[in-house]
Every structure is written in C-alpha cells, then in structure tokens.
Amino acid sequence: MKQAGFPLGMLLLFWVSYVTDFSLVLLIKGGALSGTDTYQSLVNKTFGFPGYLLLSILQFLYPFIVDPENLFIGRHFIIGLSTVTFTLPLSLYRDIAKLGKISLISTGLTALILGIVMARTVSLGPHIPKTEDAWVFAKPNAIQAIGVMSFAFICHHNSFLVYSSLEEPTVAKWSRLIHMSIVISVFICIIFATCGYLTFTGFTQGDLFENYCRNDDLVTFGRFCYGVTVILTYPMECFVTREVIANVFFGGNLSLVFHIVVTVIVVTVAMLVSLLIDCLGIVLELNGVLCAIPLIFIIPSACYLKLSEEPKTHSDKIMSCVVLPIGAVVMVFGFVMAVTNPQDCTHGQEMFYCFPDNFSLTNTSDSHVQQTTQLSILNISVFQ
C-alpha cells in the first residue's frame, strides 16, 4: 500500500489474487492436457529441457530468498536453534500430506496475528502521525508492490504436490478448492494491508513488525507467533526444493540417506542466508519479481497457450495472452526498481515515535519529520 498508493494498492491486490486463481487452475489444466503430474514435467513436455532447467532454477531458488525471522535480540541464536530443533525435523517428512495439520496450526496463528494488528490499529493508530501523501491514489513504485503481492500469493511451485494429495483429484475439485482458498487469502491480505497502512501510512516498513515498539508486549507475542508460522510453513518450500534436486540429479527418487543429506544441505543454506539478511522488504520484492512473477504470470500461461487446442477466442487463451506480457514487463521493471529503489529498512532500530520524550511532530513526509509540537501522548500506556 505504501509503494502503490492505498487506493491503487487495493485494486492491484484484487487483480493479483484473480490472476493467481486463474493461473493455478490453468496449471492443473495444462497438466491434464499434457498428461503430466508435476510442474517440472509439464514445462519439460511443453518447452523441452531449456524450459525444464529454467523452472527448476526458479523453484530451487524460491526458499533461499526467504528471510524467516526479524527477531533482532539474539536473532542468530534463535534462528539457528529453531532451525535445528523444529525446521529440520519437519522438513525431513517424505509425504507432503503429513504437513497438512501443521499448516492448519500456521493458519490459526495467522488469524491470531491478524487480531493483534487490528487491535493496534485502534489503540496505536491515532497516535502515529500521518505522512503528507498517505492518501494519494497512486505512487510510482506500484510495480514493486505487484512483486510483493505476488510473493504473498505464490503457491504454484507446490500446486501439483497438493493436487496429488487430494482424495480423487479432479480439475473441477481443484478449481473449487482454489477459488475458496484465494477468497480467504485475499480477505486476510486486505485486512493486514488496511490495518497496517492505516496505522503507519508512509512510515510502513517492509516487515510490519518493525513498525511496532519493543516495549509492546502484545506485538512481541505476535512476533513469536509469526516466527512459529514460518517454522511450520518452510518445510513445504523445502519439500519442493528437494523434489527439484531429486528430479534433476537423481532421476526423481532419493534413497533415505540422500533424502536426509539433501534436506540438511537445503535447510542449512537457507538458514545461512537468513542469518545474513535482516531486511524483509527487499527479500519480498526480489523474490516476488524474480520467482513469483514467472511462476504465476508467465509459465502457466505460456504452457497453456502451447498445449491448448481451444480457439484463439477462448476466454482462457485471451486471458493468458494478457497475463503473459504483463508478467514479463513487471518482472523486468520490478527487478530494476527493486535494486535501484529498495524499501526502507530499520535494521532492527526502533522507529522515532517510540521515543515520545525526544520527538515532537504534527506534519510529516516520507523523507523528513517536521518537529513542531510535543507528542507527549504517545507513551508506554498506549501499549498496555
């Protein structure tokens, strides 16, 4: 919302969710047309080895661009401990269906975090100064916002795995499941985006939790819940990366020993990346434009256009012809803008409004704070 402008951001959020819904159904349709049951085999049959290799690289890289936590007090120790204690054991599962109950726990925690953000919109929002351009319709960084939104909805890389885990999987059953899931997801995203932006407007950070003060116990509990959701969600991403390695180097099958070795390597490398990065915003942008955009916008549409024998006027073909070039443009320009104009990052430092005795302000912009009147109202009582 900060990058795109709140009104345009809402429109883009609905559009990205619609494209995600469309492409997820299109992906399974492409699998049915080609007689394949994995994303890699679909692309391999459609575009040969070059396409297979490109997709494998995208699917492999996706979990490594994720920055799990931003808990800056002893974050290195916490990340290492949680990885060894929880993430690695969960990632060793060989059946993705066994992760279903774990994902349900993660969903419940997400709802809890959402409640915390909503509560702080009411109790904290009125005391945070609003930036001058908070309510403009559109901003020049809208393309970067599309990348972040795409990251939020990406699940194409494990869609075939989930599809195959359904009882009596069919395209119609998958379509109903996807429609329901996308509706719920976009509802959650809208509430998060609205409450977060209404609270902090132009001061909103790439990681919303960076906006809250450290002495806010309720939000600290929310940070803990967020860390747990990442721990419970990451094994599914590791599952896909391990499958890519198995398909490319081991003919699709891993012995028990190689299964353990590959899992340990993948989890360890991802952990090392997360230890080196403490800015979630740039991670979301780069992951969105480099991995999510191709996996959502470009590859499903390209596969369907090549495989389908429907007439050119068919609605799916028309939509694919629209989505594919838009995805290519967003990918190129989004990458350039993410590198040249990255999101703000506090690197764990508290925001200025967490120190009411040192700051006074009434009128602000993105780049500076005009100190005019004492903001004594923002004190510890706001967070209790």
From TrEMBL:
InterPro entries: AA_transpt_TM. Residues 79-338 form the Amino acid transporter transmembrane domain. Keywords: Amino-acid transport, Membrane, Transmembrane, Transmembrane helix, Transport. It comes from the Eukaryota. Its main location: membrane. One of its GO terms (cellular component) is membrane. It is a multi-pass membrane protein. It is found in: Membrane. The chain crosses the membrane at residues 6-28, 49-66, 72-90, 102-122, 142-166, 178-200, 220-240, 252-277, 283-305, 317-339. One of its GO terms (molecular function) is L-amino acid transmembrane transporter activity. Belongs to the amino acid/polyamine transporter 2 family. Putative sodium-dependent amino acid/proton antiporter. This is Putative sodium-coupled neutral amino acid transporter 11. It comes from Saimiri boliviensis boliviensis. The gene is SLC38A11.
